[in-house]
């Protein structure tokens, strides 16, 4: 596996474009389109929220009922959630606009939206946006990057990743872009992820690979514990690498899942580190837990604790809050047995052992916690299971962004 | 039932004192003591965190194994949590200091601590504090108020409440004080509650009344979703009202539970409104849910949502975030059927109906949300169950307080 520069246009046969459609933001790009030269197998995972946005309903139906997809249209600014029958109609109309402009069947057009809930999309602007993007579609890395920029809301950086690997002598690429902050626990501004690959693989295995991988990647990210109505990850595989189609869980499938996992992990960490107002990526690694599920629960509990997140912002080695967050996670353990460490590129320090603080240097701990990526390592001393979760610190700017998001 | 001024000394035969013991804070009172003239039946509820502070272990044992208690010693500043065997020893020594000073058996002395985790208590200062408080014990309202002040950490106001009611011609009083912010979801600075009554009641019924009532009072408060290692509510009943002992769930028991519920609700609301950095008490009332448990879950989900809390701080009528928080609570419902309202003393406004926003005035909504007590009313349109939860807004000051709590 080789890490390469690029995003959704890295894989063969995928083009992208972006435009400033003026949907809600002014003077910036706010619409993007991804098009595969040939019909691609499609897979998707969606929010578990009871309240589901129109594009989520649209995509779930298409991914489930249709064998292929060819295009994805994304807008930032308005979420098209809580918009009733009118909202569903706009998904249909968006797909029809693509059909009309690019001769791609409407039932092969996926849609995604992010932004304010309860506002209707300005359909005319969307249609004009699609017409503007159609002639600009390109397979360049730059066009992929423009798309990654266009889908941002409160994100401060575009998020892209790509890798290549070999299957039966053919070079296969997996690339992707995303915006927002988490799948189970996303920022209201919604986690949207778009992945493309030129691998030939059956639709069933594609869906399974995606469903399995989000559990340990996007689902382990939390910015503020809220789950959006719009969270969506879509994965298209167009087969243009020319490999024999993967139809079983063989060595080639394993290589693909490894590549997919790399891209998803990279994107997940970018989201966590770019959480609203964040100044640091806050990682929690749980090792030696008694089960995988417990390891995940413990790691998530720590990165979701507002008190711990505020302490990370303050570069404060408040191990008591970490212990406390482990303690209310619902997982049973012996607080006297576990051990806690802080680590970053500035070093590693043990802060808790035998039921109480070690004799660590506060100064050293603060130095370690002052890096832009900080890890809490939790050794449960119980078994062999492990998990990693990613979050960010809780800052003044998180409050500022969310106190006046709509204004 | 009559609401009266007072706290833990309102009921007959209860004395209190406070002192500046210099445990961690300087130049303020940081220790309090409550003493009953006669042995009192005791009841307690404690944190569900796996990590439990030494005083929690001490009190749980005494409340379970001993028939009576006579004193409670509380300190602020150091939590005596994650302090190993030494921490347990300090509970014992504190009780022995009371035995030595006031001739109260050590096994009738409850203890409670709140503050920083992992630091050992300065035992000598605690002993001196007990010796200083002993001669100052008084049954005046002022001494109760001093105690309520002494147990505060990041609280900005002392929290006290009391009521009287009649049982067989005798006037019975229930009073209490608390500090912190919630039982299931408390601020790390810990929720501590102390209740006293001169009612004569069996220990079993006393415990049952307390256990039942915290579910709809303290357990419906959340400031930041974190659950402390030290959360404790203690209730002492010394029988000095002279009523015939309540030994069954009769009309007199019902009167008592009503009085207890009033005091607990009043204290719970004070805690929520005084959440760290809060500028507003944020209440969520769920009505017409299909079960009591679902009503509680839905109400809690809304008051725990960081995004909603930040919107309340910004006086922003962001009903989408409320709907979203209901949606990820885990309770199934039809988003098209429910209705949402904002209300405060400035009025009431319907903001959501039939799956989308009503045509409400943003200006009016902002005016309603600018009051110090704001309610979201959620009509689930499913059944007869209801619940209320209390939280606060998420502010810059919450971050500030928790980024540098230990410094």
Brief synopsis:
2 copies of one chain form a homodimer. The first copy, chain A, has 407 residues and is of the alpha+beta class.
Tell me what you see in this structure.
Chains A, B: It is an enzyme of class 2 (transferase). Chains A, B: Keywords: Acyltransferase, Transferase. Chains A, B: Its EC number is 2.3.1.1, 2.3.1.35. Chains A, B: This is Bifunctional glutamate N-acetyltransferase/amino-acid acetyltransferase ArgJ. Chains A, B: It comes from Petralouisia muris. The structure is a homodimer of 407-residue chains. Chain A has 407 residues and is α+β, with helices and mostly antiparallel strands. The first copy, chain A, folds into 2 domains: 2-273, L-amino peptidase D-ALA esterase/amidase; 281-403, ArgJ beta chain, C-terminal domain (Ubiquitin-like (UB roll)). Helix content of chain A is 33%, strand content 28%. The first copy, chain A, is built from 11 helices and 15 strands. In chain A, the strands form 2 sheets. In chain A, strands 1, 2, 3, 4, 5, 6, 7, 8 and 9 form a 9-stranded mixed sheet that branches. Chain A has a 6-stranded mixed sheet with strand order 13-12-11-14-10-15. In chain A, a hairpin with a 2-residue loop joins strand 12 and strand 13 (356-357). In chain A, helix 1 (54-65) crosses helix 2, helix 2 runs parallel beside helix 3 (123-133) and helix 5 packs across helix 6. Chain A is globular, with a radius of gyration of 22 Å. Chain A starts with a strand and ends with a helix. In chain A, 62% of the residues are buried. Mean pLDDT of chain A is 92; it is low at 182-188. Chains A and B meet through helix 8, helix 9, strand 13 and helix 11 of A and helix 8, helix 9, strand 13 and helix 11 of B.
